[in-house]
Structures are given as structure tokens and as C-alpha cells.
Amino acid sequence: MVEPVVVRLADIRGTDTDIAGGKGANLGELIAAGFAVPDGFVLTTAAYQAAARAAKVDPSKPDDAAERLRSTAVPRRIADAALKAYDALGGGAVAVRSSATAEDLPGASFAGQQDTYLGIEGRDALLDAIRRCWASLWNERAVAYRAANGIDDGSVALAVVVQRMVDARAAGVLFTADPITGRRHTAVIDAIPGLGEALVSGAVVPDHFVADPETGRIADGTSRGAEPVLTDRLIRELASVGERIEDALGGPQDIEFAIDRDDRVAIVQSRPITTLYPLPAGGAPPDGVLFSISVAQGYFDPITPMGMEAFLAIGRRVGITFTDPADAANAPNPVIVAGQRPFVDVQAVLRDPVGRELLARLASAGEARSSVVFKKLAADPRYRGGRRSPLGTARRILPLLLRSQIPISILRLLQSPAKARARILRRVDARTRLDVRPGMTAAERLHLVETVMDDVLPFMFPRLIGLVAAGMLSYIAAGRLLGDRATPDELLTLTRGLPHNPTTEMDLALWALAREIRDDPEAAALMRSRSQGEIAEAFQAGTAPAVIQVGLTSFLQRYGFRSVGEIDLGVPRWSEDPTHLIGAISNYLQLTDDALAPHAQFERGAREADAMRATLLARVSGPRRRLLRFFLSRARALMGSREMPKYMLIGRVFTPVREVLRPVGEELVSAGRLERPDDIYFLTLAQARAAVGGADLRETVAANRATYDRERTRRRIPRVLLADGTDAEVALVETAEGDLRGSPASPGTVTGTARVIHSPRGAHLEPGEILVAPSTDPGWTPLFLTAGGLVMEMGGMMSHGAVVAREYGIPAVVGVPDATSRIATGDTITVDGSAGVVVAASATKT
């Protein structure tokens, strides 16, 4: 059967992207739903493919492909069909629009990547415009966009939409959600007189309107001329039409419209708004304020479906713990998944005056930029709540806290830090020993994982939280006792060289291995002459020099459960691929100044902290001094444990669970139900059970991986996401001008060359360079040992990066908005870790 080369637009439906492209399919769906779309027809992808064959198009040569399509005559059968359809429209002026099979899709809009030609009139002009549309599939911007979105050039084709021109007195673009803030159910309209081509090209400044489609209220209006392009009636009509189009097409839309001489609205194009951050699949709670757990942990990638199971399990236990026992069965899970990332709803905390203050203070220590957002939200009437006294809050919260056992854990740690810490770690270690027996079936392994999620994680969580809280409370208490007798820098000095920090101990162990390698001629020569991947292959084959083979094996036995992105149990561990560690060791080998060596920095920091403690004690007397001595000693003894919860969680639960699941994946591959063993991490527990029960889950995995890969390319993750989709930071916090400002994290000032690094995998950092990163987790910290300073887009005083930076005496500023885009590798910058300011070199000259 010969595929049709021309189809009436009214006969196209939304599922016909393979023949009509994204634009054509959406327009056909809108016609079927009764919207005012100009009549027209589609030259199908079959027409393009015939033309591409006639022009001898080679997808591997895009420049040649474009020229061939422009210069080769339209095949006669296609030309005849197009001209017949054009005549049926009545001839005259038409719009000729490209409609690729890989555009106007949920993950990639391709807006403006292919060409559109307006006001085309006459048979020859129509055929010429069709050729130019076909050729635009291979223009430079479209090819680059496909490459950026991982779309194979050979997999795409182009349809061409031909529509009657609207005799437009005005035209514009309507968004059914705010494309900047992300707020849903908001009509954002830009409009200009005449055709919309000048608006799309950016050649004119449009009138701008914002309206509520439900109430018809026009919230904002900015006119470029004496009279607005659109009347209030048209603004409200467009808002209403946009809402109905969103319902018809199943999501927020970017709509192009035209207004004819009789003020009638015509829809000429509609595509998904692909940049919006996804809302939770089941919808967010009314007035929900979703705080990103991922961003708080310094991790921006999505979480695999199996990795998300752990976060949901922790959330279930937290929900039960902080719910009245009589209603525990109906306890909500505070962990909410959006965009394959975990969030926690904090609206109830914001509504309580005491909780609101506590939330802002805690966020300022761990994620300072979120603290600013919470302070802004405090002024929102939705979250003010009623008048509540601190006593009333305490009366409600205290029983819940006692039930969590966190206060008891804190008191024991304050009473006897070493004894209580050892007791907690001993109990956690005993409770987390997984009963993995030889010959376990896949079903038994999944049952073991479920037990860990439902039993072990709830046991660990409150006990490990106490380790962090006891040290932080001691530090805060010491600061309150000192008042204005101590500067912020002096207080931060107390946190240098802290004992019992497992991440620091890991870094120092890796540094010790680097020194051994440096002192061994054979090992050092291999590190200089081979790539990281080649050295990793030699190590895994057992053929590396003895110092590397033995030393790295010993390190991995202790720390191999860690990795970049370790909070996701679906991410491979260093024990599986040590390439990243070998790269870190290569960086260390360049550090030849013994005074800058990490162990020397750590020891110097500990001495400075002891000296500062004595200095601060000398500034007070009497009972205050005795109390200050107590809290200072507890802060020094306990604050290093800030890294312990994650260390234990990853080492005792996440990585062992990953290892328990791996044989399940292998068994399902053998049974033909999965393609690869690591596909098991792209299933939920329920899906894994279905696979073990006989279901073929390969298509499910493919869909889950596609969503995961798409989310990995997302550049902005909201710190705080409101229920209506608003990115609260974008909507509420003004961007600072001039110098880059953040939160002081590690005192001192350094001027040096910036190196912007988005991922530590394979990253190289010269000694003394200033590391500029979006965030960090323990997988990043080997880079810290050679860094001269640190700038991070996220974090607060007690965030992971800040803690480690202070350990090594590296000046650091964290919570700097857009640092990785506003600073470029090679820039000379000054980092003032005391003031929380980053200054370009040119600004520091006198």
C-alpha cells in the first residue's frame, strides 16, 4: 500500500506524529476538539522521505543534505498532490510550517529549530517553500539541538503543514503556565500588531499580559504603545482558550495565535512547554511547599526508581512517628516524588511560628539559599497560620519528638560523647547485618530488601539524626553564650580539624595512598603515562604495580561502598569502577608542597581550633565560663559526626541493598525479562516482584530509563517547589547584581584561577585552583585536597562542602546563585570566605 503524501489537517489526530510531525499532530487534535485552527493540509513524512531519496540525502552529511533538498525539484507525484490540495484551499496566501517527528514532544519542543514561511502565494512559491522547509531539518541549529537531546539524525523525518493565512491585525504567544516561575494555570501572553514573525524573532518588544484563566482577573499588563494590542476581553478569551487547549492536549502549552480584523482568535500552533519542572504524578498537596531533599544533599541528578524506594521508606516511618498513634495507619508520607527526585512537604512547619523560625535556621546551616526562600514565604498569607505560642508548639511537638527517641539520643551524647557514639554505631552495625545466604532465590532477595526498607531504615534514622543534632546544638549554645564576644570567623575556626569525621578520614587515607604511589618509581611512572581508564583496567585485571594493586584494594575494602551520587543505590560504587579514585590520586601527585599536604592542613586546623577554644574561654568568667567549656568540648567531640549518618546509611544499607539486588537482575536477564543486570535498579520493588513472577519488564525499564535520561539533562532543580508548580526561589528572590554573594562557609581569602566543574567524574584540578561547582557530596571531596578555594551554588555553613573545606583550611563561599554560569574556567577570582563574597579580579584592582 502506497503511503499518502498529502492529508487534510482535519483528518490528522494527536497520535499521528509519525506521519504529520509534532506540530501537525497537535493542530489536527485541536481541530477535532473544535478549536479555531485555520484550514490546511499536511505533506506527510512519506513525502519528505521520497524527496530525500530523490535528492540522495546522506544523514551523516547535514550541510550537504540541506543543499540537496533545497536544490532538487519536488518529485512530480508529491508536487501534484500538494498543488491539488493548495487549489482546494482556494489558493491565495498560506503559511508553510515545518513539522518534524521529533518536535513538540514532552521532552523536547524543538521550538524554532526548523523553518516557517508566512504569506506564501502562488504554486511555484509554495513548492519552493516546501523544499526550504525540508532542508531546514538539516540546518545547523536543528542538528545541534538533536545532538544535545540525544536524538539520532537518521531517526527523524519532516512533515510540512500548509494553512490558510490569517489576515492578522495582531498575533502573539500564549503560555498556559508561567515559563519563568513554573506556576501552572496562569496565562502569560505576549502580543504585537500584525504577524507574529517579528515577535518570535525577537525583533520587537511585545505587550505583556498575565491573567488568571479561572477568574478572568488580569494580574499584570504592560503595553508598548499608547493603546494595548489586546483588549481585556481578548486577554480573558485567550486565557480561557489556553486552559481548554491544555486540557485537550494533556499538559501546559506554548500556543501561537493570531487575531483577525474582526477580533476573532485563531490558533496556528501549540506545543508542550518542556522546560517546566514536573509536578508530582498524583498532584501536590493543596498549598504544598516541597523542599528538595536532593538539593539539600548536594545532588541534582534524578534518583533511579529502586533508589527512590529507600527515600519513600524513610518518609513512611517519619510520617508514622510524627502522627498521633491513634491515626498512625493513615499517616501521610511527607516524601513526595517530582521529576524523579524526592521532596518533603514543609507547609505544616511553615504555618507554625516556632517551626517556621526553626526551619529557616536549619536551612541556613545546611542550604542557605532555601532559608532565604522560607523567610520570603513567611509573608505569604497561605502559610501564616493562626496565632500560636511557643508553649503551645512545644506541647504539640514534644510528645512526637520523645516518641522518635531523638531527644534521648541527644542527651546521652551530651552526657558522654564517646560512649554514646560507640553505643549508637554498635547498635546500628548489629541491626544492619543483612542475612544473605548462599542460594537465595530472587523472591527471597526482594523480601530481604523489603525488610530492610520497612524495618532497618526506620531503626537507623532517628539514632543517626541525634549524632548530627547534638553537635549542632552544642555549637549554637556556645555561640549564644559568647554573644558579641566572638566573631563568626572565630566560631568557624572551632570547627577545623574535627575528629570522628568519616569523610575526612577517607580523604586522608586516599592521600596516604597517593604518597605511597608517588614514592614508588614504577607506580608513579604508570600514573604519569597512562589514562585513568587504562590504569583502572590494569587494576581490575590484577596487573597494576604492587603499590597500586595492594593499596587501592585496601582502600576499597574500607571505602569502596562510596561513590559520586551515592544517595541513589542505583548508582555504581567505587568498588565497581575505581576510575574516579585513580583520577583523584593523579591530582594528588601534583601536590608537592608538604606544607599544603592534607594531613598537615588537618593537623594545623586542629591546633588552631584548640587555641581558639582557649582564647574564647578567657573572654568569659564564672558560671558562664563553666557552661561554655562544656558546650565547646561537646561541639569539638560531636560536630565531626555530621558526616556519620550518610556514611552509615550508604555503607550499611544502600550499597548492601544494591549488592543484594544485583543477582536478581542477572537472573531476570537470563529469563529474558530484562536486557541488562543493572536494569533492576530502574524498577520499583513492586515492578521487580512482577518480573520475578514472570512479567517481561523490558519496555517498562526502557520507559523508566528514558525519563531518567531526560531528567539528567535538566539544568535547574527547584530548591522549593510550590503546589502550583512555582519555583519559589525564582519567583520570590531577586538576583543580586555585581559581585557574587552567598554564605560564608570557611574563613579566609584567596585569589586564584577558577575551574568550573559540573561533575567530578574524570575532573582535573590543578593545585591552588578555585573549585567552582553546583554542589558536592563525598564523591567530590578528593578534589578538595588540591583546591585553593571553593565556590558552590548550594549549601550552608553545615553543608558537606563547607564542613570539608573548613577541615582543610580552604576559603569557601556557598549558596552562590548561578556561580557555574557567571564564573568561567580561567577567570581570576577572589573568594572571601568570611564575608561570603566572590569578586572578579578586575573588581579587586585599585
What does this protein look like?
There is one protein chain. This protein is 47% helix and 15% strand. With 846 residues, it is α+β, with helices and mostly antiparallel strands. The strands form 4 sheets. An 8-stranded mixed beta sheet has the order 16-23-22-18-19-20-21-17. A 6-stranded antiparallel beta sheet has the order 9-8-7-6-10-11. Helix 16 (417-431) packs antiparallel against helix 17 (442-482), helix 17 (442-482) packs antiparallel against helix 25 and helix 17 (442-482) runs antiparallel to helix 26. The protein is globular, with a radius of gyration of 31 Å.
Radius of gyration: 31 Å
Strand content: 5-15%
Give unreliable regions as ranges.
Answer: none
Number of strands: 23
Can you list the strand order of the major beta sheet?
16-23-22-18-19-20-21-17
Terminal-residue CA separation: 78 Å
Task: Give the CA-based shape.
Answer: globular
Mean pLDDT: 88
Helical residue percent?
40-55%
| Class per helix and strand makeup | alpha+beta
Q: What is the tally of helical segments? A: 32
Most strands sheet: 8 strands, mixed
Quick tags:
single chain, about 850 residues, alpha+beta, 8-stranded mixed β-sheet, 6-stranded antiparallel β-sheet
Question: What is this structure's SSE topology?
Answer:
Blueprint lengths: L5 E3 L8 H16 L7 E4 L1 H10 L7 H10 L4 H14 L3 E8 L15 E6 L1 H14 L3 H9 L9 E7 L3 E10 L6 E10 L3 H5 L5 E5 L6 E5 L9 H18 L3 E8 L4 E8 L16 E4 H4 L8 H17 L13 E4 L2 E5 L1 H5 L1 H14 L1 H10 L12 H15 L1 H10 L1 H15 L10 H41 L5 H6 L8 H17 L2 H9 L2 H10 L4 H14 L19 H10 L9 H20 L4 H17 L5 H27 L14 H8 L5 H15 L7 E3 L5 H5 L7 E2 L1 E4 L2 E8 L13 E4 L15 E4 L7 H8 L4 E3 L4 H4 L5 E5 L4 E4 H4 L2
